[in-house]
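request received
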Amino acid sequence: DTGVSQNPRHKITKRGQNVTFRCDPISEHNRLYWYRQTLGQGPEFLTYFQNEAQLEKSRLLSDRFSAERPKGSFSTLEIQRTEQGDSAMYLCASTIGGLFPLHFGNGTRLTVT
Amino acid sequence: ILNVEQSPQSLHVQEGDSTNFTCSFPSSNFYALHWYRWETAKSPEALFVMTLNGDEKKKGRISATLNTKEGYSYLYIKGSQPEDSATYLCAFLNNAGNMLTFGGGTRLMVKP
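response:
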């Protein structure tokens, strides 16, 4: 068990470019969450997978955001046509179930210039 | 959108002081309440997962209580140490069981 792994740790991109982040959860965890965190705020829910099924997606999330979890293993989060407001820390977490704690990765810090 | 509020937003205490902070959440459709500790440059770490009204949990000098009927949880730290400095997050899970909604956190700074 190597914990939850996120790549890259940092990403700097120009406005309008597409970016993709990867999350490798703990192997036996069937639930995977993506959150976004900006300075001074708590993590904001983006989306949730149970195995390969995307069961929840925040209504705050624009159509430029998409996430996948093929085969219920790793997950990717893609942001198309990035905007400066997308600059944030993107956190991934996994768990066995709702009554169990989340295990977080170290996050991907995105800066859009 | 579920409303999970934490207060205060930040807190400065002296080493040795005991402190507590509050998490408020919807009292309907409750399933679980999580507490996490997030140190700078690290990832959030779980402290407690609480499910039953009246639950009390303890981990060393940190303890938490839960009132699901009125929708609040308290986190207590006894004899704060500088290494307790972190942001403390609570998160509410409703009985659909899918979306874990976080509060804004309480940032604790303990001065030696």
